[in-house]
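Feature request disguised as a bug report, sorry. It would help if multi-protein outputs had a clear separator. Right now it looks like this:
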Amino acid sequence: MGEYSYTDGELRVNLQMKEDFNDNGYILVRGVLTPEELKVVRTSIEHPDGVTKYAVEFSDGDGKFSKMSLWNHPGNDVTGVVGKCQKVAGVMAELLGGEVYHYHTKLMMKEPHTGGKWNWHQDYGYWYQNGCLFPDMATVFIAIDPSTKSNGCLNVIKGSHKCGRVEHKKVAGQTGADVERVNQIMKFPGMELTEVEMQPGDALYFHSNLLHTSSQNLSPNRRWAFLCAYNRRSNDPVIVHHHPQYTPLEIVDNSAILSCTNNVDMEGKDFYPPEKGIRWQVLEKQNEIKDAQ
């Protein structure tokens, strides 16, 4: 249960998919991006003047590093079209039960032999701090490369979103979920550890309170993944922070991915530093004021 396929150019959300998402905290859909679409997406993300230009490194506290490019608004390039298309954003709106907006997109890059691990965490463990009062948020994790046990695939705890928000604290240089609580959750019947192996184009739609982690990439193969995060309109954050308040999202037809020829237009995407957009400037100013008080 919980595994589906994108077939005949359609992904229709049915009652079973909603039940699986609500019960397990995720659904896995095979082949959301077709081979032709993957080629277009790879051309865009691998372009030297594309999103990887804004990548930053994160240490895993154990000698390895992962790279990430993050942007707050979809923009009009191929990566933006993916984040706006029906089979990604539209499906997420149906799973969350209401209008959604683009919270941010990340390109996560674990390079061969050096890619760092990510400790157990919930996305809402971070987003709660941003003034999002409800966990009406979720992410679509799309595999760009094969994501396997050997190169650090995603591991999740099935049904763990039902536990609510777990306290997060500093763990080995990262902010992660309370390890003791995570271990207790995994002992609970039905909340087993699941290793989510994926082929390029597969997508995992998962709830913001789902506990997940990934190990280091010690293999000779890279592991890149494209993650689109969404928030419900009704959950508009109550404080200004480094991700957007409610911003209307125009959901486009899936055909827009192949028809888009815009690979390197980064205007309006508002990247995580080093290129600092207006929201980062606002946040920094707020922090300066707090430090001065």
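(second protein starts here, but nothing in the output says so)
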Amino acid sequence: MTEKYFLKFIDHFIKHVKPSTEEPVLFLLNNHSSHVNIYVVEKAKENNIFMLSFPPHCFHNLQPLLYYVEVYGPFKNYLNRAQTA
């Protein structure tokens, strides 16, 4: 992930999640260098997205387990099957 593509992802995220002042969004990050970008932070702030970055080297200990099991686990399985097919 690069800063350029992460900024595009934030645009995509805003388009589909539609955060608002009435319903702000908490966005959890893993402290990757592409996330530390003034344009991303400003865009998130303007669009009612609160960004919370985990400290380095402890994301695996602090990430919400349910989210990983319910979203990333099935997604990784699907992606692996699609790439090997």
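Even a blank line would do. Unrelated, but nice: The CA atoms of residues 54 and 61 lie 10 Å apart.
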